[in-house]
Amino acid sequence: DIVLAPFSAPGKMSGDRDISSVMGFSGFGKKARTFDLDAIFEQTRRTAIERSLLHIFSTIARFMLSLCELDLFCLFDFFRKQESGSSSDSSSDSELIGPPVPTQQDDDDDLVGPPLPPGYTGSTAHSDDDDEGDNPVKKIPDTHEITLQHGTKTVSALGLDPSGARLVTGGYDYDVRFWDFAGMDQSLQAFRSLQPCECHQIKSLQYSITGDVILVVSGNAQAKVLDRDGFNVMECVKGDQYIVDMANTKGHTAMLNSGCWHPKIKEEFMTCSNDGTVRTWDLNSEKKHKSVFKPRSFQGKKVIPTCCTYSRDGKLIAAGCQDGTIQIWDRNLSVHTKFHCRQAHTPGTDTSCLSFSYDGVTLASRGGDDTLKTWDIRNFRNPVKLATGLTNYFSMTDCCFSPDDKLLVTGTSVKKDEGNGKLVFFDRASFERVYEIEVSSASVVRCLWHPKLNQIMVGTGNGLAKVYYDPVKSHRGAMLCVVKSKRKEKQAETLTQDYIITPHALPMFREARQRSTRKQLEKDRLDPKKSHKPEPPVSGPGRGGRVAAHGGTLSSFIVKNIALDKTDDSNPREAILRHAKEASENPYWVAPAYEHTQPEPVFAEDSEEDEEAEKEPEWKKRKI
Questions:
Q1: DSSP secondary structure code for residue 621 in this structure
Q2: What pLDDT does 372 receive?
Q3: Which of 230, 190, 76, 121 is nearest to 464 (CA)?
Q4: Burial classification of residue 323, based on how many CB atoms lie within 10 Å of its CB (0-12 exposed, 13-18 middle, 19 or more buried)
């Protein structure tokens, strides 16, 4: 019998040991971990006291160090005043606490470099910087330039994405070329060229505000949208040209003149056409336009818009028309104009460009009447400023504002061999011609001043696209490609001959595929037979054991061929009948096969009726 000893408390260690010894095992498993809270609290208190004492000591040390520095400064100031001999000033300065106030001499001592010339003052040191800030001409980036060869015809369209990484150019040669500043080297070659609108001149190119798509406006009635690599994204629908009211058609029915993207909405763009309408489009719905604006003359007749643009906030739509008017609508109200100037430019001329300033108050217009005008849209009756004598031969000559809104830029046109096309800069406030750049011997058609790169892109009438920049004031853009050296031209590798390779032929019968001529030329060079220079032909009687062949000269060749010419110029019938007797006596080819079966030929005799029938005229003969 087993007698269990009683235990008083199940949680006590003595009772556990007694039970485990009686039951025959060592224990009840792992013990729970116990914590001494008093020891933990004591350790925490000591750590806090040590950290607080350390903080106090460091604060005291910093304070003592600052006092020492203050004493040194005061002592230095005292000796400096004693040496200068100004006792009255020293008594007043000695009462000041802190480091001495720097003087002009101290500033001169801090400058690094050669000694300054006599009479130099500190105010003149920053005069150049102040003048540069006040003078916007000094901000024009024209110290360097690169030339991109688009083609031989007029560059009529320029577009630069918002980041300034890619430039796209279009011209009268129907080509659109893509230029990547980061991928180009000093050879300045476009990485892609295409003709998106077949045989239509490119009128306008513009990147969207996100830079992922490009609007292409050409001489046809349908605008296109391409992606960054030139692939087609959308093509606007063409309207019905037999409908009188252009508001009832789904698209344009005549040649396009201009187009641009909305500055705030990335899916919306606008186009104007010779059908007398300005239409807005949505990138997601290509089957129909979004809204229609119809410019009207003073008599209410249809007029043709030649250029169009959005305001900077995208709330207004402006169009320049052939009758010399500039009409501005509210984007959400397409019926009546919000602003209308009836005599903005000479009637019958094409207003080539409209551009809003960055503050959204001023509108610049470039007219076909050789003028450049600025307008205040709050008082739209008369122009604020006017510049004349700016020759314009193109319907897409640009004008644009500088990034700081202080300058206005446009180009001038010239006839062939009659001068140079210029890029002209006007001060916006005074409208004085403050600067000029002679671009080339052809007209300046397009100009674009990118606000992020601070670089000016220019399209000319002789197929060039120039980029002006300043290494100090400009950023990225053209400066990325001019520092890269030209890539070495690779040797042209062509196949020596075409091989026909059957896909299911056995490897043992398959000929080795020759990929280039370079390796074959290297092998042939090592072969003594193939690399041996052929002997030149022997002229004359012969030399070196070699006899000259007949016909080595032109005269001997002609004589030899005349002697060998044995052609029979006789009658071919007689030449054939020459062998008739021999063929009938000694048949060899056809006659022996039909020797026993061939009948004798029997020919019909001519009758009198046949002779009379032959004598009758053709119209009397009976028709069968």
A1: S
A2: 92
A3: 190
A4: buried
In 394-548, the DSSP E strands lie at: 399-401, 407-411, 421-427, 433-440, 444-450, 455-460, 464-469, 542-543, 546-547
Q: Tokens representing 255?
A: 């040649």
CB atoms inside a 10 Å sphere around CB 426 = 22
Stretch (H or E) spanning 381: none
Q: H or E element: which one contains 193? A: strand 192-194
Sheet strands (E) in 379-497 = 385-387, 399-401, 407-411, 421-427, 433-440, 444-450, 455-460, 464-469
Distance CA 85, CA 61 (A): 37
CB neighbour list of residue 288: distance below 8 Å, 6 or more residues apart? 237, 250, 251
pTM: 0.58
Cα 527 to Cα 530: distance, rounded to the nearest angstrom: 5
Only one residue has tokens 């490119």, namely 202
pLDDT tens for 184-225 read 888 888 889 999 888 899 999 999 999 899 999 999 999 999
Q: Identify the DSSP state of 509.
A: G
Residue 469 CA to residue 145 CA, distance in Å, equals 6
* pLDDT of the residue at 505: 62
Mean pLDDT of 423-434: 90
Dihedral of the CA atoms 307, 308, 309, 310 (nearest 10)?
170
Closest CA to 276 of 300, 254, 291, 248: 254
- For the chain, report the end-to-end CA distance as a whole number of angstroms: 149
Helix, strand, or coil here: 517? helix
Q: Which two tokens stand for residue 74?
A: 């005061």
CATH number of 138-483: 2.130.10.10
Contact 408, 426 (CB under 8 A): yes
Q: Count other C-beta atoms under 10 Å from residue 453's C-beta.
A: 23
Domain boundaries defined on the chain: 138-483
CA distances from 455 to 96, 133, 139, 164 (A): 53, 18, 11, 9
Q: How far apart, in whole angstroms, are the C-alpha atoms of residue 426 and residue 447?
A: 14
Q: Tell the burial category of 196 from Cβ atoms under 10 Å away from its Cβ (0-12, 13-18, 19+).
A: buried
How far is residue 200's CA from residue 176's CA, in Å, rounded to a whole number? Answer: 11
Closest CA relative to residue 197, chosen from 228, 221, 213: 221
Nearest-angstrom CA–CA distance, 293 and 240: 17
Q: CA-CA distance, 257 to 324, in Å (whole number)? A: 16
Length of the chain: 624
- Number of neighbours of residue 78 by Cβ within 10 angstroms: 13
What average pLDDT does range 343-370 have in this prediction?
Answer: 90
Residue 581: strand, helix, or coil: helix
Residue 174 CA to residue 167 CA, distance in Å, equals 17
- Per residue in 380-419, is it b (16+ CB within 10 Å) or e — as a string? beebbbebeebbbbbbbbbbbbbeeebbbbbbbbbeeeee
Q: Which two tokens stand for residue 372?
A: 């450049």
- Say yes or no to pLDDT of 310 above 90: yes
Within 10 A of 238 (CB to CB), how many other CB atoms are there? 15
- Residue pointed to by tokens 């054939």: 576
* Cβ count within 10 A of residue 142: 16
